[in-house]
Design goal:
By secondary structure, this protein is of the alpha+beta class. About 30% of the residues lie in helices and about 30% in strands. A seven-stranded mixed sheet has the order 1-2-3-4-5-7-6.
Length: about 160
């Protein structure tokens, strides 16, 4: 990680937030793959090249992780550059047994803080349209739908007005 990336110093009752290090990558990847397997029922890792080449794809970007008191990674989200002043949240995931306990909100808040620290004006993301809980989650956090395409809903979050 470059030293100019702010590290969220937020701690909560049952998780702490930080930026992932290369030592965390395999656990982050496993969390994401487990989440996809639960959602999709049949997950084929070979169809997700970014996960197969996780370190190469995400090794130089902010990956926010939520760790349990025991040190297990129970939530994550990744910021990638989309365009000048715009970042995209990808691969946000929370361990099944930690869902609906605020972990996702904490990770999302830290990702938004990272985007602000980087001077971004906007965050974009997409999620599968029939993943009702994910769609409701992003809407509840102020993300606004921009369009639908190929079974996905695309959202944006303007930082300049908040």
């Amino acid at each position: 990680m470059s030293s100019d990336v702010a590290r969220p110093a937020l701690s909560y009752v049952d998780v702490s937030l930080d930026l992932a290090t290369p030592n965390d990558f395999s656990e982050v990847r496993a969390l994401i793959e487990n989440g996809l397997a639960r959602r999709l029922r049949e997950f084929d890792s070979t169809r997700n090249g970014d996960l197969v080449e996780f370190a190469r794809t995400y090794g130089a970007v902010p990956i926010v992780v939520a760790k349990s008191r025991e040190g297990a990674i129970v939530g994550c989200g990744i910021l990638i550059d989309e365009a000048p002043g715009v970042v995209r949240i990808v691969r946000m995931s929370v361990a099944h047994d930690r869902r609906r306990h605020g972990v996702g909100s904490r990770v999302l808040t830290a990702l938004i803080a990272q985007a602000r620290t980087r001077g971004c004006r906007e965050i974009v993301l997409e999620t599968t349209a029939d993943w009702d809980s994910a769609v409701a989650f992003y809407r509840a956090h102020g993300f606004v739908e921009t369009h639908r395409a190929d079974g996905d809903i695309h959202f944006r979050y303007a930082l300049s007005t908040r």
